């Protein structure tokens, strides 16, 4: 990990605290323990089988699927998981992930605010009999949203695929797609994916606290008096108000996954401090 101006931090793909709970192996990268105020970032891998149940009593959580196929059970609904799918876990909801394939499911998640009463259990929070293992997992090409038989009402999905979101320009040459946002019921976090071609953005700052994960490509983070290279699997923490820019000096587009608090637009940037 390298700390830059104003508490900005760049993490390698090996940084973070590792925990294992059954089929779930997680790496906590951004958290209050590493200097963040409200937002977290966790990189997870789920092996074959059913993971433990997780409940955040007061926090919102968003997940993005990097690799693998399976099902996410959120309280009384089941959602298909495959690359590019984003999921919203409301406060108080209990969720777990079922992987019926030998290929691991890999996700990046953000929780806000960090919930000190988060629970991880082998039983759902309400102690009802688990549905995991009783119903088949969705195929990789299953539609995103509640699987047939889910008790969640139609039109109230907690998931979205990045290809189902509009591409929005940010500056002259950058694009982003909003993933989990207010239309899915999320009030505090905005999750997005963005693409950065060969370019160097003007130095700017945001009025939100942000964590990003590098899905593809390599580049450089610049702050007022420091810089740091990053590559696939790196994570970056931007405190609110820190002046910075992201440069792509190569010829391969960078793809980033971001989440920030408070909710808003990824394109909102300010060049004068």
Describe this structure in words.
This protein is mainly β and about 270 residues long. The protein has a domain of about 100 residues: Jelly Rolls, CATH 2.60.120. Helix content is about 0%, strand content about 45%. It is built from no helices and 25 strands. Strands 1-2-23-20-25-18-17-16 form an eight-stranded antiparallel beta sheet, with no helix packed on it. Strands 3-4-5-13-8-11-15 form a seven-stranded antiparallel beta sheet, with no helix packed on it. Strand 3 and strand 4 form a beta hairpin. The radius of gyration is 18 Å and the shape is globular. The two termini are about 25 Å apart. About 10% of the residues have low confidence.
Features:
mainly beta, eight-stranded antiparallel beta sheet, seven-stranded antiparallel beta sheet, Jelly Rolls, 273 residues
Task: Give a brief rundown of this model.
Helices cover 0% and strands 45% of the residues. By secondary structure, the chain is mainly beta.
Element layout with pairings:
Blueprint: E1 2-3, E2 9-11, E3 17-21, E4 24-30, E5 41-46, E6 49-50, E7 53-55, E8 60-67, E9 70-74, E10 77-81, E11 85-89, E12 94-99, E13 105-112, E14 119-121, E15 159-161, E16 168-170, E17 174-178, E18 190-196, E19 199-200, E20 209-216, E21 219-223, E22 227-230, E23 235-238, E24 244-248, E25 254-261
Antiparallel strand pairs: 1-2, 2-23, 3-4, 4-5, 5-13, 6-12, 7-12, 7-14, 8-11, 8-13, 9-10, 9-12, 11-15, 16-17, 17-18, 18-25, 19-24, 20-23, 20-25, 21-22, 21-24
